[in-house]
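Hey L., structure's done. Input below.
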Amino acid sequence: MDSRNAPRVTVLMTLYNKGAYVVEAIESVLANTYADFELLVVDDASTDGGLALVEGSADERIRILRSERNQGRAATANRGLEAARGELIAVLDADDLMHKDRLFQQVQFMDAHPDVVVCGSWIRGFGHADNLHRTPFDDIGARSIMLFGVPVSYGTAMFRKSAVELHAVRCRSDWRTPGMDYLFVLELGKYGAYANIQNVLTEYRLGEQNMRHGRDPVADDRILFKAVLELFEISFTEQDLDAHLALNKVLPPAIKAGSVRTAYRWCMKLKHQIALKNWRCSEAFNDQVDRRWAELYSILLARSTKAALMHVLLDPTLPKIRRWVGHLIRHAVGR
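Output:
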């Protein structure tokens, strides 16, 4: 198609064996109130008949890229990034649902904020569970959490193709564990601001079809957060990495007091390194670290008396001491 007739938005959907859900996902895109878009479905050699269902649609806004062999989600997403014709690219997974005004709201926001390179929204989980994931509105808030989680959820994202092309931002094609989308969003954030519309525009289907289902979350998170810290050139040891996971509430069943001491030292070390990097969000980042350290106490209190006591000794506060005394009293009465 001539660039003069190219759609303003490309909705990028990668497909691999999600035939049970893809029609519903596509219908949610086609129902959008914003009309100037193409839906680019990139199939990764599906074997469940899903591609045939997509091909059965007569809507001229749908464009399909096929693959002779399975290449993995990251490589498939990269094919879509390169083939997208829109000035803006919106992502929707093949088992998720898009609200009918999502594209309109995001295009309007991107037009009003030319400094924003990627805009997301809140996201609601449905299916095997029902939950709401809120992401911060502005760039400072989003960046304050990016070492612990996604500043913008990839499945809700709309981003500028100009940034993808100019800076050759791509998914890591050799990545085979969960988190490829998280790393992509972090890379994209080097070239502009983050933002999140403060309402739900995408529904995330939770179930056995999710990549994380049935996997070891501790092992996967260890691989992922190691890559995140390396991306920002933050120095760490293997013990530091354990501590970072603990701040993300990923802990082994047995927790020793020494591990709590390591976690406290990691908080100090992490804040010091971020201060040296002069991040705009350093103050908000420090608040984020402090909050995660404080929340760790409740987990420790439920699992290990010695570990919880170490938390108190390292960072004593009156409310925490009162809770600690109350815990001892309840423990004594229980005996």
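The chain is about 45% helix and 15% strand. The longest helix spans residues 282-303.

-- N.
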